[in-house]
Design a protein that fits this description.
- The chain is mainly alpha-helical.
- The protein has one domain: Growth Hormone, Chain: A (Up-down Bundle), CATH 1.20.1250.20.
- Helices cover 70% and strands 0% of the residues.
- It has 23 helices and no strands.
- The longest helix is centred in the first third of the chain and has 35 residues, at 65-99.
- It is globular.
- 55% of the residues are buried.
- One of its GO terms (cellular component) is membrane.
Length: 526
Amino acid sequence: MVSVSSENKEAALVDVNQTDSELGEMALDSKITKTDLAEAESSDPALARKIFLINNALDEIGFTWYHAKLFCVAGFGYSVDSQMEMIQSAVKVYVDYQMKGGGYPIATEVFYAGLIVGSILVGFNADIIGRRLLFNWSLFTTSIIGFVVGGMDNYPMYCIFMFLSTVAAGGNIATDVSVFMEYLPSKYGYLNTMMAGWWGVGQTIASLISWAFIPNYSCASGDYCPSHINRGWRYCWWTNSGIVLGASLIRIFFMKLDETPKFLVTVGRDEEAFESIKKIAEKYNRPLSLTLEELKSCGEISEDHFNKERDGYSLKSVWTSMWINLKTLFTTSVVTRSTILLFISWGFIGISYSTFYNFLYIYIASHGGDVSSSTFVSYRNATLANFVGIFGPILAGGLIMIPKVGRRGTMIFGALASMAILFGYTTVRTAAGDGGFSATTYFFINIYYGTLYAYTPEVLPSAARTTGIGLALVVCRIFGAFAPVVYYFGAESGSSVPIWVCGAIIGSLSLVSALLPFEPSKSRPV
């Protein structure tokens, strides 16, 4: 049994040589004797032992072409998440012009509601029915409904179908980060952070789509805006949905993902978990010393975990399993502290990031600035800024490899640098200044964002990983849903207070990062 020293609980690390007689020979014979984030699995010793063996097996197999494909296919889930948000943001004004004439941005709130519901449905259920099904079909559903959204001619139906499309997309990212991390050898953990660069890819794609259609196929104002002169927003939805459909078909027919072995052992399916690992080893001619007997010898996992053969898929069993997974996020004082600080991090970045970008141009315009000399220039600047943002997570992936920096140090740096740039952004009065500052802002804030996205699944218990990610996204999106309120009521005031407050909140994330108890850079994720 992997034991957790009481003196080391605060660091949440366990030496793999600290084993009982049952696991001792396996640990000593293993070629890989690294440390694990065992505190997160301490509520179920049998599961901790199984995860330890699977980690060793994945490290023994190493990085393969399967992982390279998964990096791209799972990474596009990041891309779709950001594409959806950017497309909705780009077209909302012109949809309002055509269908409701302006006023409070209801569609934006509906969009956030869809993301919140999707995060709950997909995040919670991926820990029960598995990652594979939701990973494969969430993007397909998003794209099909997205085509319908682009064909709507009245505002209520537009909002309803946009809600359904974003529900399908909302929790997709919870499965993306979990699937990739649960297959990734520990030596290549930095790729989990770099994968967030796909977020910038999605933003760039959405900006290019908007740049191509909005300036040329949109009405000038809400005074006269019939559909025949305002088809740009439709083209944006249709083009984006076509790209998402292509990505979903690649997932279904090209990647052919197997269920992750770490999920399989959490639900008592050891044979399938072993076959999943063995399949990769055999396909790429890699060594595999793990045997099914060794995996089974770790014992039976707690009956609290969901088992489809035993429990079925009744409403009662699913609800019970969800509740157990929620409690798993708060099993010990250290895990509880980690979970709460993660939720605070996601909430703070959700409201500050969204509010700043909704409110910034109002503030600049009210102080004599002219950053939008034309629609063309505005979308050009947005495209360039989002492209630069791709490289933030790439730098973050390098920074986390520095021993004295790690994940937490990288997040501290990203938060402080973003705060400084955001404060400086308020001095912008020209389109050129807007382009430069926005590109710099995206770069630094994506250092923080990318690291947080990767860090979150790394420190969550494997049995409740997507539940935790889903809840983190819910918190982020609930806080982000307040951005339109600030945008709407701050439109006439031109006060700088919201901008300075948002910058300060982002800066405070550096303190939250410093208080996080886990440092995966010094251990091996579960």
